[in-house]
Structure formats: structure tokens, C-alpha cells
Amino acid sequence: MAEQPHRRVVITGLGAVSPVGIGADVFASAVREGRNGTSEIRSFDASAFPSRRAGEVHDFEPSELLHNLDLRHWGRSGLLAAAAARLALQDSDLDPELLSRSRAGSIMGTTSGESAVLQELAGQWIGEGLKSIEPRLVRQAPASQIANAVNSELGLTGDAQTIPTACSASNYALGYAYDMVRSGEAEFMVAGGADAVNRLTHAGFYALGAMAEDLPRPFDANRTGILTGEGGAALLLEPLEHARARGARIYAEVLGYAANCDAEHMVHPDAASIAECIRTAHRNAGVTPDQIDYICAHGTGTPTNDATEVQAVRAAFGERIPPISSIKSMLGHTMGAASGFGAIACCKALEQGFLPPTANVVQVDPAFGPGVDCVPGRGRDAELNILQNHGFAFGGNNVITILGRLG
Amino acid sequence: MTGRPTAGTAEGAVATAVAVKPLAVVGAGVVSAAGYGLAPLGELLRGGAVDAVAPEAGDYPPRAVRTVADFRVADHLGKKGTRYLDRLTSFGLVACKQVLEETGAPQTDEERARTGVVMATNTGSVSSHSALLHDTLAQEKPYQLNPAQFPNTVMNCAAGQVAIRNGLKGLNATVAGGQSAGLFAFRHARIAMTLGRADRLLVGGVEELSGPAAWAWHRTGVLAERAALGEGCAVFVVEEPGERAPLALLLGCEVAYFGPSAEPSGRRHGLAGGLALVIERALERSGVRPEEVDTVSLGATQHIGLNRLEERGVRSALGGLPAPVRVGEVLGETYSASGALQLAALLALWAQEPAGPRTGLVTSIGHDGNVGALVVRRP
Questions:
Q1: pLDDT at B138
Q2: For A358, which DSSP code?
């Protein structure tokens, strides 16, 4: 069943606040060049950790980007989300007043919510005891403040929905926002995600043995894991008819998506379930495997993920696997924002005609078998039409979105 | 865009709102201070509150709590695989087990692929998260966490574990929306089902009590002094109305955000006006007239100031406050679980009254600016 009976939905605005730069164009140029966005951690004292790198957004100055938020009242994840949303709105050239008057809201994914705020609260707990925790920080702590921040920044009274489904969350947000616009529940929606680099996530991935020794090297034979990352990613969705009527630049049409659950293991991905998610996404989008020009992989760079992902893609695509690359090689793993950045990379790849690369690859893992083109090193010029964006998560949450050039 | 709402404004959207198709609630699983299932909750609501108790152990503020007494997950699920489950996920698993025993678990691969989970939470398990965070700050080697416990800190842990235990391979969503998170879950379920994303969903909300969370509530000063802190979980199986007799039908479910700077200048609904707006929209999309509502299950009953705003919003939309149900008064404040437990309370009370058509409203309003309304009908 192709998802066509409802109205068509397109992406007309992109906002990126990322470890490789702020703004969709800066982001796209950096990605195309294969630039490294990771560095020594500054946001917390990482001196006691064996691994001290992460993909932080060092040059994020909320006051330079935000118009409406009172910066004292929001945590870093919310500020990253709101800044990305403001950039997406500016990029879309949509009248902010029209947006604010319309049925419009935001769906924002996250893994760790307001983790930097929680980290500060935990510091107060250890310092002076629980009775000393600051109410100001408590009010900033719920994950729901992330979508709330977007709605407050853009002046939106529609759904302010945070989706804390871990590392596929912004793909789920994109799918849900698409459903809301195409079914008429909303006129416009902002979709995306945000997370902040923080001590607990860093420690947790290290404890799981999933942390890269030096750099993330997805698809490489000697890949050792992830580096954590942060950022805010946002995409503005509107009905095709509306976008055409106002002469908007249309990056891509959301052709469809699928979400399923492994229901096997909290942490280990399941190839059969991912393959099924790919097939369902294709069916929902009304496309066939041979039409997919590129896969923006989940591609964490852990030995297990990349092997499982390639296995699943092979199961769903058969002989020919489209070029498949991981922008996590450059950004680090931006968690709840990761598949939002993937969707932005896809939109820019369609617009500018290039395959996003996988950085840091020395030798593609021969265990994957033949025909795996991970676009090593730098981006490659390519005429693209239909792209597939992956997001997988703890809890077995798989979400795959299909984006296409407007025909 | 013919046949679709094309309104450019919030007010306009009300005028052209599309009618919703009813969803059937065919079962309910409840874990609360009242006990397990709807019946003890109904009795508690009719009989008045149980005595609040002091917390069993740990660092708690001087405030009453209402806990799920003597809860041990292994008593319900057996010992296998339950060692590292936290309290929040355990409540979710037990409530889901209950409701699947009542309604029947999916049997075929196709049914499992088309059955999903939508769970409301705003912070996940505060006890899991804060304990590990404490470790990373207090220990000499901050990276030596127990890797078996780290997955408990992600907020979709409960939904993921429910899927694993019950083989539910359909969409698996975790939603946050502050005090209104439960209503966001019902709304998400409605939209997903309407678009054919699943045939059956387990929809609910879950919250656990912990020292850090209790202190967080206490320090913000938003709750009335007499208000107890609570915990629990309610999960409902929803599907297209069919052969099974439903406990109730879920009709319109609307949410909106009236937080700081959300409204364009010149419009000031505020929280009460915003709540009235979503109630009106939910009623209209349900084809229900305000005077048909015979029961209102309120959410903010223990929140200073918000309780009055909620009642004002309801009165403004309905012209009165018919048969208010205040589940927070008997279970304590349950935050992420409150919307789901409000629906459970409504159904539990109706079950104790004579059969026949009933129409209810579940409302929610939060300090963060989120408001929500769900229309419920018993045939």
C-alpha cells in the first residue's frame, strides 16, 4: 500500500546545529568534504576517562540564533533543538507569522533528554544533598522541554511532542510529523531531534565496550565503536500544494516510512527485523529496491551494528546494494539527533548532487562481502532521486524514512 | 486539499475539524497503590483514599507518598530476566502482562508485526538514571558502570522491554509531553491507527516513585502541601471497533501548547483558555455536545493554581463541571502516568455503576504549557 491517498508532504526548510558546523549549508559542505567534527571533550571533566573525545558543538551561542527563548529557562538540548528549528524556518522562507497562526507544532526526538541539566542536578545531589537541588533546574529537566522549546521559540500552539525513543528518535519524529501533515492534523510541522554530550552517555557507551579507540570508522575492518556527539537537527514539513503555491524551494518529498521493533534484545540489533523494516518502508513509499540511489546508514561504527546493517540491507536489496555511508564518522553519534542529521544530509545530497561519504575508512571490512560502497573519504558527485535514511535504537526501535526528489 | 482541514489558524481549524473514527479500548492493565486491575481502583475511588504512608527507605522529603506496596517484579514475572529491571519498567511489564492475559496476546507473526506499544514518560526511570549518574560522578573510575544497567537509563526502556517480553514487533513509541504525556500517547495512538500503522496498540503511561524524583517535586513547590506523591502504570489495548465488546470507545484526543511565547501577539488564551479550546475541538471532532459529558476525570487536582485553571477551562468548554473524578487524590501525583490513570479511574468508576451509555472527558494541564483533552464513550 503506497502512502498516497492523503496529501503529499515536502521538506522545505533545514536547520543544523552540528559538530561540523551551524546552518544547513555549512553542514552540507563539511559533510561533503568528510570533515572531522570530533575533538577533546570540553563540556564536562573527562580527565578520568580513557577516551576523551566527542562530537561537541563548540561554537553554539544560543543568543545569536534564538529570538524568543529566555535562555535562563531552558537546558542545552532544548536550546539546540530550538536553534535548529529557527534555522529551519529561516531556511524555508515561510512567513513566521503565518506559521505561528497555523495549526503547527513540533515533534522532536531525543535519547537522553535534558542530560546536561540532569548532570548538573546530580552534581548538586552529590555536593549538598538532594534537599539542595535547584527548582530552576528541575523545571528544565523533563525531556518534553525539548519540543516545548521549539514551540516557544517559533510561537507554535500545536502539538509539542518529544519522542524519547533513543537513537532512531528523530526518524520517528520525522515519520510522525509527516503523518500529521499528510492526514491534515497539522498544516506545518517541525521534525527533528536534539541531544547534548554528557558524562553518563559517554560512560555508558564506554562500559558497553562500544566506544571508539580513536575515531569512529564505520564500515572499516578495524572499526571499534562510536564517539558520542551532540546537536540539534530540524526539518520543516509542509503540504506540497502549499509549498508550490508560495514558490518554496523543495528539498524532498517524504515518500513514506516504516517503524518496527526487534522485540529481541535491548541493545543488540536484529538483521531480520531491520530487513523487514526496509521492505515495509519501500512498500509504504511505493518504491522498489532498485529505485533507491543511496542509503544514509545508521552506521554507528560498532563491529556489531555495521555488520548487522549490511546483512539486513543485503537481505532486503538482493544482489545490488546502493551506496551506503555513515555521517556518524564525522559528527560522532549525535543520538536522538542522529537520524535527523541523516535526513538533512539526504536533502542536501538531493539538492547539490552528491553522495555523503564515510570518513576515516582505511579498509572496508571484507567480512561484509562484495559490493559494499561506503563512499570512503570524501563525497562523490552523483545525480540522486530516491534516498533511504536509517535509524536504529536501544529497545530495538527501527525507523526508516524514504525521501525523494520531487517528480 | 479538498476534504482536508485547510484552516490557516487555530480557530479556523476548529471550524473545519475532521471527525475522528472511534477506537475501541478492549482491555486495561493497572498497577497502582490501589492494587492490580481496574476493580480495586474503582473501590478505592468510591471509598476514599487509603492512608498515605511514609516512604519505606531512602532519602525522601517530608511529604506523604502512596506506593505500590510490597511490589516485587519476580512475583509477577518470575525470576528469569528480571534481575536488572527497574521499578518503572517493571510496572509497565506487569500492567502489560495483565492486559494481554485479559485480551489475549497476539498469536501469529502477522499479528505480532501489527501490534505495537505507545508509552508515556517524561524522564524514564529517575532511580536508574540518577543512580548511574551518581556513580559516574562519585566513583574513581567513572566508566566502570554496570553495562547491564545502562540500557535502563534510556527513556524507551519500558516500551522496549514490553515488546521483548511479549514479542510485539509493531511500532514502538515512547512519548513525552509533561503532565499531559498520557494524552499525547492516546493522540499518537489515534493518529497511527487512523493511518493504518498498526492493528492493535498497547497504550499507556508509567511512573515510579524515587527519592530524587520526590525531592524534585518537593523543591519546586508546585504541589499542594497535603498532596501525596504516587506511582503506577495503566496500559490499555486499543484496536478498531470489531467483534469484541469494548470497555469504552476513545473518540477525539487533542493537545496544544500554551507555554512561554507560544501564542502570537494579540491572542492570549493562557492555560485555561487553551484547555477550553482543546476540549471544544476534541468534542467537535467526536460529534459530542458539551452537555452530553457526564463525567470529567481531572489531572491537575493537586497542583497549586493549576487545579483552578483546569476547572475553569472545563467549565468554560462544558458550561459546568459534571461528576469530577480526582484520581490524584487517592493515588497521589503520578506525572507521566497521570493521563493513563485518569482514564483508568473513569473506566473503573463506570464499571461499578449500572450499564448503559456514558460520556466522559479526560483533561490535562501542565505548568510547562501543555494541555490535552480526550473524549471517551461507553456504548
A1: 87
A2: B
d(CA B286, CA B162): 31
Length of chain B in terms of residues written? 379
Q: 3-state DSSP call for residue A313?
A: helix
Q: Please give the tally of structural domains in chain A.
A: 1
Give, for B155, the enclosing helix (H) or strand (E). Answer: none
Q: What's this model's pTM, rounded to 2 decimal places?
A: 0.96
- Residue B353 C-alpha, separation from nearest chain A C-alpha, in angstroms: 35
ipTM above 0.90 for this complex? yes
Location of each CATH 3.40.47.10 domain in chain B: 23-239, 248-378
> Any idea what the CATH number is for the domain that residue A250 is in?
3.40.47.10
Q: Which residues, at least 6 apart from B372, have a Cβ–Cβ distance to it below 8 Å? A: B177, B180, B183, B184, B187, B253, B254, B255, B256, B278, B339, B363, B364, B365
CATH architecture of B248-378: 3-Layer(aba) Sandwich (3.40)
- Considering A242, A282, A333, A390, which one is annotated as catalytic? A333
The boundaries of the domain holding residue A66 are: 9-407
Chain B interface, mutation test: which of A131, A159, A167, A197, most B Cβ atoms within 10 Å?
A159
Nearest to B216 among A97, A138, A264 (CB): A138
A242 classed as catalytic: no
Nearest-angstrom CA–CA distance, B228 and B210: 13
pLDDT digits (tens, 9 = 90+) for A113-171: 999 999 999 999 999 999 999 999 999 999 999 999 999 999 999 999 999 999 999 99
In a domain, A4, yes or no: no
Residue A373 lies in a domain: yes
Cβ within 8 Å of A, B 144-163: 144-147, 150-151, 153-157, 159-161, 163
* A156 Cβ under 8 Å from any chain B Cβ: yes
pLDDT given for residue B18 in this prediction: 82
* B141 vs A: CB within 8 A: yes
The CA distance from A222 to A211, in Å, is 13
Residues 6+ apart with CB under 8 A from B47: none
Residue A374 domain-assigned? Answer: yes
Q: Which residues of A touch B364 (CB under 8 A)?
A: none
Top CATH class, B23-239: alpha beta
Taking an 8 Å cut-off on Cβ atoms, the answer to whether A152 and B260 are in contact is: yes
A158 lies in some domain: yes
Mean pLDDT by 10 residues, chain B (379 residues): 35 56 97 97 85 72 93 96 94 98 96 98 92 89 88 94 98 98 98 96 97 95 95 98 95 97 83 97 98 98 97 98 96 97 98 96 98 97
Contact A68, A153 (CB under 8 A): yes
Residue B282 distance to chain A (closest CA, Å): 12
Determine contact: A148 vs chain B, CB below 8 A.
Answer: yes
Provide the percentage of residues in chain A whose pLDDT is more than 90. Answer: 98
Residue B69 in contact with partner chain A when CB distance is under 8 A = no
Mean pLDDT of all residues in A98-108:
97
